[in-house]
Amino acid sequence: MTRAWNLPVLLVLSGSLGAAGLFLSGAPGRAVVVLLVFVLLAGVHSPLVFPRSIGALEAQRRSAVDGRPVVFWRPGCLYCLRLRFRLGRGAHRLHWVDIWRDPAAAAVVRAANDGNETVPTVVVAGRPHTNPDPAWVREQLSRSV
């Protein structure tokens, strides 16, 4: 769980140090801007941007019941961010699984991607699709119950 927060914490700390240096050198306005930019970057790369993550087994069980796709992702992944933002409000209807929080999820992704933890990997009807187009994912979501 802490692994998912390493990058956001590092970004906030770096921004704080940079802002402190600018503040001490007499540029408080620039210090605030630098700190805000780093906090924004930390927020975008944190798990907070994504819907609540569930375990791989629970996601697969739910998907079998409602037919909705399962998205395997990890914090800091730019392709996962792109998928999340392009799906908009529809993202909350998918089952999101953080592979850094669930070793079983990481194993599912490795099995689907020749041993690599390539994300996002979207599983629709039991078939994995690596880094699919967001429009295709929206289409699959509209087909689900």
UniProtKB/TrEMBL annotation:
This is Membrane protein. It comes from the Bacteria. Residues 70-127 form the Glutaredoxin domain. It holds the Pfam family Glutaredoxin. The chain crosses the membrane at residues 31-50. Keywords: Membrane, Transmembrane, Transmembrane helix. SUPFAM superfamilies: Thioredoxin-like.
